[in-house]
# Entry
Amino acid sequence: MPRPNEVHIDVAVSGFTLDYYKALAADYIGPQVAPVFNSDKQSNLYYVTKRKSRLQDIRRAPGDVYKTVDWGYSDSAFHCKGYGASVPIPAELAANADPAMNVDMDAVSAVMDTVMINAEDRVASLIFNDAVMVYGDALEGTAKWDSSAPDPWSCRKIANASVRPKIGRKVNTMVINDDSWEILRDLTVVRERIYGEGPQGVPTIAQVAAILGLDQIFIGKASDFNEDTQEYVDLWGNYALFAYYPVSVNENMGRVTVPARTFVWNVDSVGRFQISAPVFDASRKSDIRYVDDYTDEKAVCPEAAYLFADVLGG
# Structure
């Protein structure tokens, strides 16, 4: 059977997978936490922030040489590994489908979930890793957010004291899982700062971010089934990452300061999540679709982040 790199890329269906991926953006925060950088190379060096003064004498007379502004390069290269899965579309199923049902798109959507949850897990394992990110301490006692005297503002202040001297910017983003978010937004101290003593509703992400002195909060909701416990478990663990992120990150811009990036090898210029044209497998009497994701998730500036563990006591 042909391998994915030996078959034609179906540009139309690949475009559908990108739309499908964007539709599920609320469930998968990986592309926000480790913003995508498109590359036409499978492997290359990448830009890293240089720690140097930006205040220079840039005055020049006619004919003078201009001051050069440059970034450094990484010591090691990214290398986009191939991740992928396939889905069979039996001829009998396609022939028996109702006219309103697009069997091809339905099958691709199903396998996309597998590819996407694996990508999310790789980012979560990188970001919530105390051996990779700048790591503070595990919260203890009343410092935990579900304790009797929680103080998430202290976490932001501690993170700022670490991040700002290293990159020249304050933290403006927090990354937590859904359980931590539910606890955080229901804290009495949080609600009082938002609503005062008046009628109270359900705080929004924007409201909680604002009173914490942040621009945004990324909430990881993804979970996967654990075969041992026979239960679904969170991919994003009991951590809180405070970090600096630009308000928006262009997928074709390499010179930005973020804790991590997802490098994507843009094979055949169709973008991420490439779908092969159907390949017929006579032994299964099925068309086979291959879904490919060529990526490398790397910590490009871990100094831009500060990680706390055990934010909840449960």
